[in-house]
Every structure is written in C-alpha cells, then in structure tokens.
Amino acid sequence: MSGRRGGGSGRPRDERIDTEVIAAVLDGLRRRGYHAITIDGIARKIGRARTSLYRRWPSKRHLVAYAIVGELGYSPAADTGSLRGDLEAAVATLRRAFAGPLGRGLAGLVAHMAQDVALARTIRREVLAARRQSMRAAFARASARGETRTGLNIEVLLDMLTAPFYYRTLFGHAPITPHMTRAVVAYVVRMARPEPAGA
Amino acid sequence: MSGRRGGGSGRPRDERIDTEVIAAVLDGLRRRGYHAITIDGIARKIGRARTSLYRRWPSKRHLVAYAIVGELGYSPAADTGSLRGDLEAAVATLRRAFAGPLGRGLAGLVAHMAQDVALARTIRREVLAARRQSMRAAFARASARGETRTGLNIEVLLDMLTAPFYYRTLFGHAPITPHMTRAVVAYVVRMARPEPAGA
Amino acid sequence: MSGRRGGGSGRPRDERIDTEVIAAVLDGLRRRGYHAITIDGIARKIGRARTSLYRRWPSKRHLVAYAIVGELGYSPAADTGSLRGDLEAAVATLRRAFAGPLGRGLAGLVAHMAQDVALARTIRREVLAARRQSMRAAFARASARGETRTGLNIEVLLDMLTAPFYYRTLFGHAPITPHMTRAVVAYVVRMARPEPAGA
Amino acid sequence: MSGRRGGGSGRPRDERIDTEVIAAVLDGLRRRGYHAITIDGIARKIGRARTSLYRRWPSKRHLVAYAIVGELGYSPAADTGSLRGDLEAAVATLRRAFAGPLGRGLAGLVAHMAQDVALARTIRREVLAARRQSMRAAFARASARGETRTGLNIEVLLDMLTAPFYYRTLFGHAPITPHMTRAVVAYVVRMARPEPAGA
DNA sequence: CCATAACCGAGACGGTACGTCGCGTCTTGAT
DNA sequence: ATCAAGACGCGACGTACCGTCTCGGTTATGG
After folding, report:
1. What is the CATH number of domain D2-192?
2. Please, which of A24, A114, B20, C177 could form a disulfide with B107 given CB 3.0 to 4.6 Å?
3. Domain coordinates of chain C in residue numbers?
4. Low-confidence ranges of chain A (pLDDT < 50)
5. pLDDT of res. A1
6. Interface A-B: count of C-beta contacts within 8 A
7. Which of D108, D160, D190 sits opposite C111 (nearest CB)?
C-alpha cells in the first residue's frame, strides 16, 4: 500500500519516515480524531517534507488506511481447543484495536472507503478477509470436533459475531465491555451448537 | 433540526425549499455518494441561494443528518403476533433504507458523528433509540407470550440483530439479501427461545 | 482585466483590497523584483485572504500584469507645438515608469507574455497600442506643420524611438539618462525632417 | 559556463551528453517556449539522468543561458566596404537568431537575468558586448572612409539599430521582416551621414 | 395603508487543506 | 569521477469548500 521501489538503484527510502508517519497518524487519531489529521500537520510534526508523504501514499486517505491496516494487523487465529476460546481470542484483538486510535479513526476510514472503490477493495482484502478466514478456520475445527451442527450459515454468523463491535464503535450507543464481549461469543456458540440429543 | 424563525412577522419561509433541498440531498447521496454533496452544489441544483440553506441548517452535516433521519424514519414497531414476525418487520425497514440513498450516505454520516458529539447524540436519540425501543417492545411481548427464556441480554441481541446490516452496508464485503435477512432473524430467535423442555 | 461583477446584486467588492494589492505588488517589484512576488506573500502583507486575490485575477501573471498596466498608464499625448517636444514628452513617461517598480517588473511581465497569448494580446492592446497611437498623432501634427518629409515608415520610427528604453531596462548594459533620452529623440527628429532645400 | 572536472583520473565525461542537452533545450524552446523547459523534462527526453545535467550547469538558468549564447553565436563582423552593408550583415544574424528557438527563449532569458545579477553580467559580456564591439568597428571603418559625421553618439545609435529587433521579438506587436530590417539600417545610416555640403 | 421584519437571491470575504509541479541537493550502486 | 536512479527538503501554485457577511429586492402582517 505504501509504494515500493523496484531494483536497488537510486537513493534508498528512509525507512524511519514510514515509521514516524504512521506513529504520528495513530497519535493524531487517538488524540483528536480522524478529521484533525492533515498531511501538512503530520509532516510538520515529524519534521519532514510534505513531499515525502506524497511519495509514499497518493493521498491522505491512502495514508490513513495504511496506518489503520497496520494497526488492525492480522489476528493470529489462535487454536485454543474450543470454539468459544477461538472466537473469544479473535474478538479480543478487535476489542483491543478499537480501544486505541483505531476506534477514533474507523469512521473516517469507512467514509473514505465509500468514496474510493479501490481503497475499499484493499481494506476488505487486507483486513476483513484475513480475519474472517481465521474465524472460518475456527468453525471448521469446531465442526471436525463435532461441536457444531450442520447447515450453518457461517458468513452470517461471522457478521453477527463481529459487526456489533464495529457498530458500537461507530455509533457509540453502548460501550464495548468484557461482559458484552463474552455475551456475543456465548450467543454465537449457542447458535452453532448441535441440537440437543433428545429432541 | 431545521431552525425555525421567531414571531409571526416578516416574510414567511418558503416551505418548498425544505422539500427541494432534502430531495436534492437524497438524490445526491444515491447517485454520487456523501462526499459529492456540497452546499453550493445543492443550492445550484435547485436554483436557490446558499443563504437559504444556512438559514435552515447550521452546517452541511446538520443538513445531511436531517435528510437521513427523515429517510430512515421511525420503524412502525409492528406487532405481528410472533417474535420472528416482529423482528423481520423491523429489520425489513432497515434493509429498505440501506438499499436507497441512505446506503451511500451512511458512511459520511458516521464520519460526521465522529467529529461532532452533539450530532452523534442527536442521531442516536432520533434514530437508533426509537428503533431499538420498538424492538425491545417486541421482545417484551414475546416474553409475555412465553416465547423467550429469561436472563437474555436484550441489548446485545439487538446489536447482533441489526449491526450486520450496518456492517455490510459500510464495508461492502457481502450484500444484504432476503435470505441473509431471514438467517439473521432466525438465529436471533433461536438464541432467544426457551431451553427445550427435556433437558 | 480585474474581473468586474454584473448587476448590483450580492455583497459589493471591497475596493480597498484592489488598491492594497496593487500597492503591495508594486512595492514588491521595486524592492525585490518580479520573482519575489508571491500570491501568498501579497495576501499576508496586506492581511487579506488569498482567495480575495484569486477572485479578482485568475493567476499571478494576470495580477502583476494588471498592476503594471496601471503603473505604465496612458501617456497623455502632449501637444507641445513641435515634434521634438511631443516625442520628448512621450518618452519621458517611459523613462519615469522604468525608473520605478516597473523597471524591475518588466522582465517578468515579458516572460509571462511569452507563455500566455491572451495576456500578451491584452498588454499590447492596453499599453503599447495606446502609447503608439499618441505618438502617431504627434507625427501627424508634425506632418501637417511641414516638419517631416514624406514616405516615412512611422512604425519603424516608433520602434527606434522607444525600443532602446525597453532594451536598456531589460539588459542593463547602459543606463537610461536624460542625455541619452535627448539623443534618441534628436536622432528620430533628424531622420524625420525634410530634405534640406538646396540638395 | 559548462563546469569542467578537475584532474585526469576517474571516468571521463560523456561529451555526447552536452550536445544532446543543448539540442533538446533549443528544440524545447522552439516548440513550446521557455516556460516549458524543465530539467527533468530535458533529462527524460534524451534518456539521461538529471544528475548529469547538474554536473555540467549549476542551475536551469545557466543551462538555458549556455544554450542561447551558443545559438546567438558571435557575429562575424563582416567588412563589406560600406556602413550600410556592415550593419545589414550584423543585423541579419540577429534576425536569423530570433526567427529560431531563440525568439521564444528570449523572454525567459531576460527574466532570469533580472533575478540573477551574475547571469546578467555573463550574458552582457558574452553576447551583447561582442556584437556591439563588431558594430563599433564598422562605424570606425565608416568614419575612416569619411562616411559619417563627427560627434555621433555611437552607443545610442547601436541601441536604436538593434533594440527594435529585441523589442518586436519580446512584445510581438509587429513582425521582423526584411523590409523592416532594411528600413532600420537605412535610418541609422541616414542619421550618421555627414551634413550635406551646402548647408 | 404602510412600516417592519424576516425572507430570498447573489456574491464577496476569510480561512483551511488539498494535491501538483519544479527546483536543487543528497545518497546509492554500478561502470 | 562519471553515470543512472531516485529520495529528500522546500516553496509556490491554483482549486475546492467551508461558514460568515453584506447587499438590494420581496412579501406578509400588525399598528
């Protein structure tokens, strides 16, 4: 997402700039929110030239998206031995991410996705897809262990599992708490478990 | 939300302007998305003066929020006799709204909520709260009919029921279909139903 | 050259801004030369918004051209009773103009004329044409008085009369002095005078 | 003017680059004018590195000045036997030069002279001075032949002779034609000739 | 019936951020 | 020491909206 050079020719990029920029963006998100982020502001804060940012990211939205993607990272798809454990691990990374700068930045990111199809595609591929894949794997393991019934609509379950965290972050009608986190996972597990034997 | 004048004296407001503006905003949302909405653009499109818009709404975000709130409207809180029916009715209004201009405008609204606490409060109060209240009532009726078990975390259930629609609209990783709608409602109903008798 | 509004509608232009801008431009030309002129610098110097300049002139070159045209002004085409007197009066306005900010600005103006055909046309029309016309009239009066011979190539004479002032200003190989001014006029008069009777 | 390296060690300069650059600059001047000349553009056009240009000329204006000086060249100071012939020869080289890329480049050169005193000095020395010296020699020969009267202000005559060509080139109010060329020379010769005997 | 007050239209104003372009310098690896 | 490649710092450009303001002109209504 941050343009890379081809061969070994030419003066090499100063890797520190990348780090400084991302740090400044995340700090800006955390402290004042997305709308306060300015290319010029970032550049001045880290004492670099505006040009050096535009050399790496074609526009503000790409820059912020890049920072957010790095922050959200890739959930390690823990294998804890139980569906509940796996899902709680997956969801915990979401909760942690949203508690930091990402929480304030998410709304801005979403807005830019709406006006830049390519950006939206990238975010879906780089962030959402990876996380969903790891959660699908958790369901597959549970299925192999006989913990889940058949005919589940996994995609919908994944939405019901994760969407509430995005929703609460974006609309702020209720906080994301450990209790709420456990409740969501518990409900999903309940939906997925096999029919009781004597039915 | 659209500012009103004081006494009865003076030239009266031209009510048509309100209508024209809202229509133009929704049309703009539908056709080109939130970021393409411009106070000046709206004014030119309907052949009115910019002043006339600022006289009604203090800023662009208020205007757009007003248009969106009106479009989302208040879910009629249908009482169909069954929890599944009630929830499907409630969710159907969401689905319809997101299929129209609101779908494209949601991201922008969310972004402005993130930078304007007062606006966020208003949206939560005027839009989310009303819808949630009607759904809570549906759960209460179901409880009275003995359709649900006790100890349910209704707030979490409401999030799991509605968040997927916001989530899919904002991130676009999967479409909102009738099949998906039914699946979500079915899962929620399943989570809420009483324990099978012979357990 | 500075865009004018149509009817009487809308908030009227603040005429002071025009004056302040022109004064600042001329002062900048005089003190630091053309290349030091900056839209933003002008705006800051007079405490106005950059927008207010762009509202009047579409670009820096238009602004500077406008300032210069005003400064060069229109030579009043004095009628002193003799060709020498008329030409000296006409040339004197040139000399005065080039001694001020215009001298430093002329090179920049010329450069911009070379890259903007429309601007070049305007300058020729508004500045050169007017001055030449008044000098042509002086020759016509001299002709009526019998001071000049027939068959003169007036256009070439006008170039030989005025070009040296532009030339010395632009290339700086020699100063423009009263003595040089008189010499140029004297030579032109000599070229134009009738053949001596007994030839 | 094109910087030279020190000792004999190291990889030798590629002389072709000098030629390619100058050719590209003159071609750029001719086709799109001074403002379209770009260090980077030149380098790309000839497939060389920007560094190779900066190694030879310290800045864009030096490069262009160098190209122009070479193009204007040194007038051969012809000795045709008559003042008219000598001056026509001298002026013809001017006319030819201005008909080519130099014509479009002159304005830009003049602008850079205005903001770089050293450059201005160089141009005056390398270009103007040489040409004027050769024309002064022509006047000296004419004086020796008794073709001119005494007390002439040669410097002013030289300006009146050559300035019109610069002037018309820079302002474009009239073309430079053979007819106009002859007229200018004829007027200068007329100004310079001795007083008619019977006066 | 006519004065007042709020409206409407038009557009200038101050301001912020954007993304682009060109400059001239610096840093690298390879001839 | 050159060459090719390209990052870097810098400064200015012109654009786009924002939200505020100041005009002249319009229209109900209340003294």
Report:
1. 1.10.357.10
2. A114
3. 2-192
4. 4-5, 199
5. 55
6. 143
7. D108
Candidates B51, B55, B7, B46; CA nearest to B28 is B46
* C-alpha R_g of chain D: 20
Model pLDDT, residue D8? 63
d(CA D160, CA D185): 10
- For residue D199, pLDDT over 70 is answered with no
State the pLDDT at residue C177. Answer: 95
Quote the pLDDT of residue A5: 45
pLDDT above 90 covers what percent of chain D?
Answer: 62
* Cβ neighbourhood burial of D97 (10 Å; 0-12, 13-18, 19+): buried
The distance (Å) linking the CA of A119 with the C1' of E18 is 18
What tens digit of pLDDT does each residue of B54-85 get?
Answer: 999 999 999 998 998 888 766 666 889 999 99
- What's this model's pTM, rounded to 2 decimal places? 0.86
Grade residue D75 by pLDDT with cuts at 50, 70 and 90: low
Please give, rounded to a whole number of angstroms, the shortest distance from the CA of B72 to a CA of chain A. Answer: 15
- B162-192 exposure pattern, b = at least 16 Cβ within 10 A, e = fewer: bbbbbbbbbbbbbebeeebbebbbbbbbebb
- Compare C161 and D106 and report the one with higher pLDDT: C161
Distance B6 CA to F20 C1' (A): 21
List, for chain C, all residue ranges whose pLDDT scores fall below the cut of 70. Answer: 1-8, 73-77, 197-199
- Residues A40 and A38: their CA atoms lie apart, in Å, by 5
Nearest C-alpha in D relative to C188 = D191
D110–chain C Cβ distance below 8 A for any pair: yes
Cβ within 8 Å of residue C145, ≥6 positions away: none
pLDDT for D198 beyond 60? no
Instruction: Count the alpha carbons within 13 Å of A144 in the hemisphere toward its beta carbon.
Output: 8
Pick from A171, A179, A191, A195 the residue to mutate for testing the B interface (most B CBs within 10 Å).
Answer: A171
Distance A29 CA to F13 C1' (A): 30
Q: Choosing among B156, B162, B165, B181, which should be mutated to test the A contact, i.e. which has the most A CBs within 10 A? A: B156
Considering only the beta carbons, identify the residue of A160, A170, A174 that sits closest to B164: A160
A154 contacts chain B (CB < 8 A): no
> Which residues in chain A touch residue B196, judged by CB atoms under 8 angstroms apart?
196, 198-199
